[in-house]
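S1.2 Input.
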Amino acid sequence: MYMKNSSGLIALLPLILLIAYSANADSWALPEERTVCSKNNKYCFKVIPKKLESQLSYFKDKVDGKENAGTDKKAQKNYCRGIFYSRNASGSLKKLWETKLVNEVSPVSVLVAEQGDFVVTFDNWHSVGYGDDAVAIYTTTDGSLIRKFGLSDFLTDSDIDELPASTSSIHWGGTHWIDKDKIQLVLEVTKGKRKFEKDAEFFEIRAELNTGRILDEKRDRLPSLQFIIQPIADEAIVANGPAATNDATCFESKESERISSVDLLKKAITQERPNYPPAAKAVRASGKVIVEILVATDGTVECARAISGHPLLRASVVVTLKKWNFEKNQSRYSGFIVFEGTSALVAPDGTIIKETH
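S1.3 Output.
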């Protein structure tokens, strides 16, 4: 689930921002008019933000669910708009067109193509990374919108959850640019650090400027907390926490043949990985979870109880292991399965790549 862009969080965001603004923890200056030009300085784009009475009035109106939040009622033509110019031989700017932008208040940054054929805006004032208009592509023929899209259109929920975030924003971007030879927009996405931080690294996502079509496959690219199956010798298994009580009677009432953890894994026909609990992700809970299981003669799991591991990780592992299927046998058998909660990347083929430092 895209927690950072869920409807519940979006609904609470203005209230969070209102509190944050009062505490001066993550405040934003009011947006101002600015003009951005292409690298060759032949074309320029002027952004005129919607005028607000104040930051506080905007956030308060958001909390109250009012339309046109925070608007300065005295201002005329009060919406976010852009004006496109070309530079003539004398060096002065000539206005070609004006259009209403998709941003509620103002974009955060702008790219103007050197050929003067496209303008791209990025993010929204006060809420970088949120909404369906984190990126918007306009044609300079008449200023019409080619396409707008949000982070979830080109990033997985898992990757979005790994991006650095503040009270109001998801700091996802680096230095975006236009590949004029391929007529493509190149988006730089951080691998974990903001672009101004030391040793910040990025990966690229490309989109066609003519259509807005995203060219790269949407897949996990950033390590996130995952469960990895860990074969382990039985002598290394130590119970350091209370066993779950719900299956204690199950183990006590049934006889079984004890086999090693390694042999038990070999008998597993299905090996579904547990989902990482959101609460555990929130506090970055990790480490090994050791679960004792008893397998019935038909290969299903009769009993499962966690004997070790972080409390926030145990339940998810136990629930998943009860769904596993094993080889059939004339008698019941039991043993231990060990999972490690760690930062890892799932490759396109399903292979787990353990993060190294």
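S1.4 Remarks. The CA atoms of residues 33 and 181 lie 31 Å apart.
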